[in-house]
Amino acid sequence: MTNDSPYDELEFASERDLGALQLERLRWSVGQAARSPHYGRVFAEHGLGPGSIQTLDDLQKFPLTAKRDLRDSYPFGVLAVPKEAIVRMHHSSGTTGMATAVFHTAGDIERWAGLVARCLHMAGLRRGDVFQNMMTYGLFTGGLGLHYGAEKLGAFVIPMGAGNSRRQIEFMHTFGTTAIHIIPSYAMALLGTFEAMGVDPRGLSLRLAVGGAEPYSEEARSRLQEAWGMPFYNCYGLSEMCGPGVAFECPEQQGLHLWEDAYLGEVIDPESGERVADGEMGELVLTSLTREAMPLIRYRTRDLTSFAADPCPCGRGHRRLARIQGRTDDMFIVRGVNIFPIQIERVLMSLPQVGRSYLVVIDREQYADRMTVQVELTPEAFAGDLEQLQSLRDRIADALRRETLVRPRVELVEAGHIPRQEGKAVRVVDKRDD
Ligand code: ADP
Ligand code: ZN
User: Fold this and answer.
1) In the chain, how long is the greatest CA-to-CA distance?
2) Do 308 and 393 fall into the same domain?
3) Among 397, 330, 399, CA closest to 370
4) C-alpha distances in angstroms, 130 versus 179, 229, 412, 422?
5) 187 alpha carbon to ligand 2 midpoint, in Å?
6) Residue of 123, 276, 312, 402 with fewest CB within 10 Å of its CB?
């Protein structure tokens, strides 16, 4: 297969060429990082520098970088260029309580846009497409990140931002939107607005969607694809590595190609810090290879995934990451059992009676943990008689117990009962510390 993308010649680079390029870029990136106060100090302490790298495996000599390191040196401790070279800043949303500032030079913005254009082109976006970007603009990277990439590709971009649901649908209709970028939980919620307006998304000109920024299950994706009548491509990124455009699905939709000419990936055991084998789940660690303003070496993303052990049928050599299961800190413990929200989602989204949203509430009852799962039902299921609802509730509780080992209390609620977020969905409310 050849690369027909005019945006980046590296998409189909051979393993050998990619390896040579990575080595050269890794040395550069380590040298660049050493200019920042944080890495300057850390590398000096360990006697490390670009000269420590003879092969790509030598990366393992370098200590891991934690989010805490960024916080401790906030705001400028990881900055590797003079402030005059910064043209833009983004800031993580602080979902887990620790926000980070991320800086970009003009070159960083240009390369980031190139990576995003490559992602979109791979998914089939072309000049002439009308791309409605329904992600929040501003400090969050989802808005401007995809905006620049789609413009670079030559698409007609509508910078909608999130929310204002009716207007989103009106614009899709008026301007003939063919592609959207949207948070998956919002894509689910918007289906309710389509219904209220009597519009079928499948009757519009839409032909592809890009969705990421939060974990979502394959079951949720299938539902979205069915209801919207188009493919939903999974898009992964984090502010610390520019934002979206780090890894993206090809039309095979079998995992996300990590752009290894720009990011070196490792999957480690979060406890021991050792690399795990391909196919084994662990924490993703990323090293930026081309970032000037804020290079990060062996950054712990806290995102749980694995590398695919086999090559992708599409022919791209860039290794694939499995769908992200969540962050290490999304995990909650109920009665001693570790649970990830995505496990709950998988079960719920595979049941046809279940509607579009759910919420896990954890509290204590007589000193013991109690997990309650609120489940929105479809209007048809919700209209059932009491007996039917009780039996459905028991079936959901049983299915959740099989998946998580904890039998939750299940509360069946009407569609629209659970508050909607325009940004990342909140799936768990833990009241135990209140
Ligand atoms: P914050 O860390 O404050 O949420 P970011 O906007 O940088 O700020 O969020 C990046 C995080 O979002 C990733 O580390 C990951 O946990 C999550 N994320 C992004 N894309 C995906 C995706 N496609 N699937 C699952 N999680 C994702
Ligand atoms: Zn592929």
Assistant:
1) 72
2) no
3) 397
4) 6, 17, 39, 22
5) 24
6) 402
pTM, entire model: 0.96
Domain span at residue 242 reads 1-329
Q: Is 235 helix (H, G, I), strand (E, B) or coil?
A: strand
Q: State whether 167 and 25 are in the same domain.
A: yes
CA dist., res. 269 & res. 192, Å (int): 41
Gap between the Cα atoms of 180 and 159, Å rounded: 10
In tens, the pLDDT along 372-408 reads 999 999 999 999 899 999 999 999 999 999 999 999 9
CATH at residue 279: 3.40.50.12780
Choose the final residue of a domain: 297, 329, 361.
329
- Same structural domain for residues 178 and 153? yes
- Residue in the block written with tokens 């390369």: 111
> What radius of gyration, in Å, describes the C-alpha atoms of the chain?
22
pLDDT tens digit string along 67-78? 999 999 999 999
Q: DSSP for 415-434? A: TT-SPP-SSSPP-EEE-TT-
Neighbouring residues of the ion ligand 2, judged by CB less than 5 Å:
250, 252, 312, 314, 316
Q: Please say whether the beta carbons of 230 and 206 come within 8 A.
A: yes
CB 272 within 8 A of CB 255: no
Ligand 1 atom at shortest distance from the alpha carbon of 302: 14
